Amino acid sequence: MNAGKLILTILLLLGMAFKNNLVAASAGTLLVLKLVNLPSALKTLERHSLEWGLLFLLLAVMVPFALDKIGFREIGRTFLTPVGIAAILGGLLAAYLCGQGVILLQWKPEIMVGLVIGTLLGVAFLKGFPVGPLAAAGLAALLLHLFGLKKPR
């Protein structure tokens, strides 16, 4: 078994063991594509899946607008309350950190396994939520910067 298949199998098993269906489904899908030898599908996923994932995340976040659950009044209040201002600052910081995460993943793509394992452990033992590799990579980039191991751009 080559390294890619073994790593995907380990990620599949870890996802199943820690009840992280997204990790298990992702690893399982990639393992099937690798086993049935569809390199063009893998290249398409490599090229576009991050954008597709972000598209679906943004769709999920914007659904309340489409359902008329959030209107201009609620948006206006966001700028006037401490919670709203904290949310804006949190979004600003998260966007910056995720950008640093993209840079880190491009620089050292092999850290993805560590990010997934850390996420699985956080979900299993800290009752966390698997927010995704960009957020985890952004925090890792910040930690590397704080320890002087890598300067974010």
How would you characterize the overall build of this protein?
By secondary structure, the chain is mostly helical. 78% of the residues lie in helices and 0% in strands. The protein is built from 7 helices and no strands.
Keywords:
about 150 residues, mainly alpha, 7 helices, globular
Structure annotation, total helices: 7
Radius of gyration over all CA atoms, rounded: 18 Å
Biggest sheet architecture: none
Order of helices and strands: HHHHHHH
Whole-number mean pLDDT: 88
Helix- and strand-based class? mainly alpha
Please give the alpha-carbon distance between the first and last residues.
38 Å
Q: Are there runs of 5+ residues with pLDDT below 50, and where? A: none
Give the CA-based shape: globular
Helix content: over 70%
Record field, number of beta strands: 0
Strand proportion: under 5%
Helices, strands, pairings?
Elements (H helix, E strand, L loop, with lengths): L2 H15 L3 H15 L3 H28 L5 H7 L3 H26 L4 H15 L6 H14 L7
What can be said about this structure in brief?
With 153 residues, the protein is an all-alpha fold. Helix content is 78%, strand content 0%.
